[in-house]
Specification:
single chain; alpha/beta; four-stranded mixed beta sheet; 22% helix
Length: 166
């Protein structure tokens, strides 16, 4: 009898704990993640051994808190090259996608072609372009960022969590 892969797995993936994004200049990463998307810098990490200067950011709270690490190398010519490994894309729940797209566009954020459309999971989605240009100077700094319209139950769950004390 063949067992399903889940019967052998002694754990469950519960959600996203962190996303690590590297670039040659973490200040440029901060323009998008902190200034435009509103993440809070909650700490820093610097390691010669790991060749990293990192800002630790956070979104969400409680069990829904996700860490987003914005990394740059201390020396771009040394290993590990924290800025050289591309990340395909990061998906972010958004409570009001059309309003987000309108506001971000007005701030100079570059979007990939295609506009808001249905994604693979059936949610409305759009993508922030990984590369800025002269017209739109803010982008994913090498990372494609997917904005996903959160369904009502996800919006409500985050709303309940935010309204709870502590």
């Amino acid at each position: 009898m063949v067992q399903s892969p889940t019967s052998h797995r002694p754990f469950k993936v519960l959600g996203i704990q962190q996303i690590a994004i590297g670039g040659p200049d973490k200040q440029r990463l901060q323009r998008l993640w902190v200034d435009m998307l509103g993440l809070e810098i909650t700490g820093t990490f610097r390691s010669e051994r790991e060749n990293v200067d990192e800002d630790i950011c956070a979104m969400g709270s409680g069990p829904f808190k996700v860490e987003v690490d914005l990394m740059q190398p201390l020396d771009p010519d040394k290993k590990p090259a924290v800025h050289a490994t591309p990340l395909n894309h990061v998906g972010l729940w958004i409570d009001r996608l059309p309003q987000a797209v309108e506001w971000l566009s007005a701030q100079g954020v570059r979007f990939a072609p295609g506009g808001i459309r249905k994604g693979a999971a059936g949610f409305d989605i759009c993508f922030l372009h990984p590369k800025a240009n002269e017209e739109f100077p803010i982008a994913g700094e090498g990372v494609l960022v997917e904005l996903v319209q959160a369904p009502l139950e996800v919006v409500a769950a985050f709303g309940r969590l935010e309204s709870q004390p502590g």
